[in-house]
Request: fold
Amino acid sequence: MILTLLDLTKKFSSLRGINTAVENINLEVKDREFFVLLGPSGCGKSTLLNLIAGLEKPTYGEILFNDRIVASHDKKIFLTPRERNVAMVFQNYALYPHLNVYENIAFPLRIQKTKESRIKKSVDDVAGILEISDLLNAKPFELSGGQKQRVAIARAIVRRPDIFLLDEPLSNLDAQLRNTTRTELKLLQRNIGITTVYVTHDQTEAMTLGDRIAVLKNGRVEQIGTTLELYNRPSNVFVAAFVGSPPMNLIKTTISEENNNLFVGLGNIKIRVPEDKIKTLKIEKAGELIVGIRPEHILVGRLNKENSVKIKIDSIESLGKEMLFHFTFLSQKLTGLTNHLNLNENELIDVTFSLDKLHFFQKSSS
Amino acid sequence: MKEEKVKIIITLTVAVFMVLFCLVPFIYMVVTSLSKNPDFLSLQSSFGWTFGNYKNIFTARTLHFFEYLRNSIIVSGVSAVVAVFIASLAAYSITRLSLPAKSFILLFTLSMSMFPQISLVGYLFSLMTKLGWINTYPALIFPYIAWILPLSLWILVSYFMQLPKELDKAAIVDGCSTWQILYRVILPVAKPGLFSAALLAFIFAFNEFMFALMFTTDYTARTIPVGIALFQGLHGEIPWGNIMAAATITTIPIVILVLIFQKNIIQGLTRGAVKG
Ligand SMILES: Nc1ncnc2c1ncn2[C@@H]1O[C@H](COP(=O)(O)OP(=O)(O)OP(=O)(O)O)[C@@H](O)[C@H]1O
Ligand SMILES: [Mg+2]
Reply:
């Protein structure tokens, strides 16, 4: 099932005025794709998911499942979730507390008036897939978080939905369980092959799960791409800072011109701005430019004369295998990542910037 | 260690005092009902045990004890069930559907219930007379429903508000219609709230006195509080023994109901205060 969103906008009007939760979203989710919506709290992820599910009506725009219009403001079409055949998993699981696990999973089938024998077979099947067969008689309050999560997923996939929607399904689990469930979820999605839209604010989750990721901010799409595309070619400061952990260093610099070439300076290091960047970013001859460099591209040691500077380490954080070191450069706080584990606070060291790994952003692009 | 002990002692003392304070009238009622000579104002009179009062109210046809009890149970039961049913629909639409002026509706119903009953009695009496309902069940049931509706509504609204909205969303996505959401998810989940609302409504109606006094004329519709109050002895004296025995028997249905649904009621009443 291909999911297409066209100019999708949702405004809430409340006493405080009109609040645009989702604005002009255009995107296409491919058949069987694991698509992730990533963004900070309040950026409209849940609203977008609710629009796809049919729990909210769009203010403008259209939603298509394959060629079928399921919601359109102009054409006055709005299909209910039932008619769209979507399934959804919620952050707090939303299991029915009065029903046991078996009845929870069977619930959507009962509403569809499926035959009892079919229900039994379907429930047993998905319970087997999610390894909850021995919990079928338990009530939701007897289950652990991870088990509830499985039941919620089982309830969602039991009726073979066309589109599978998940709203931060892992955020109530502890870190370890989150990792294992993440892997299993990805595997499960591959096996059942249902087009999936997954909402999260956790960039690690997004990067490990998603075939493609849409980064949202204030209800707008900032960038859509695969994990590598987002990581290696963030299209603006927001994506650069949001994707990747520890986040990219962003340094404010001033543009200068020399022999028809544009340069920015990192202290004494002079960097030529690549031609293609000048074109795509429409860089002026003067003004400010933000230079981004990922922590792993700040290398410890004086590897060559031109790109190296001497810095004093402000603080260090050991990650076991690697180490983060924070330092102040051009009165901005920067972070480097290294596998030299013998650094100390207040130590003076040389670091080298890998100039071929720099990113350039317009200041106003946020 | 010492502090712990002091705490326990204080808690116990206060608890015992409160229980005694609440139970004294009740004990007094039971004792008087078992007394041979129930002139309870005079301390001199000698005390003797007897079941005569109970035998009397069960056997004396002129007291109509059973008719009163039956009327009370029917009137209160019907009123409570209908009121809670209406209140549950109202609470659902107030908490879940988009409805203009929700808080106004809630405050308005609350202010309605603040009307002193006495201010309504005159009008209701002439209404019931016109309808020809005096001394029938509807004359009590309809005013009772209206009277206990605000209370039930407020209990249920606060209860429904505690239920996570995702429960509704999940039900919608699973294919439920609005009606199915209500009877397959919300009502079963809110069962403790429904029970406590129904029970409180029942007790309210069961104890109501003024309407019952005004709108009934004899045992065909008169409820037990009025019935007992109007017990009369042969020579016009007040038969305290019979009254107390009848009152004791009358509290039994309520006590039984409370005992059966105790867990539900506590859950229902504290749900608003403690996050469930
Ligand atoms: N029913 C509603 N009425 C009014 N405003 C709403 C409603 N639902 C969401 N909003 C607003 O829309 C914006 C986006 O909310 P949304 O719940 O989609 O954010 P989110 O990205 O899911 O955040 P989180 O990560 O915290 O769940 C917020 O500013 C929120 O206040
Ligand atoms: Mg959300």
User: Anything to note?
Assistant: Residues 156 and 238 of chain A are 33 Å apart (CA to CA). The longest strand of chain A covers residues 17-29. Residues A 45-46, 167 surround magnesium ion (ligand 2) (CB under 6 Å). The interface with chain B takes residues 50, 53-55, 80-82, 86-88, 90-92, 94-98, 107-108, 111-112, 155 of chain A (CB under 8 Å).
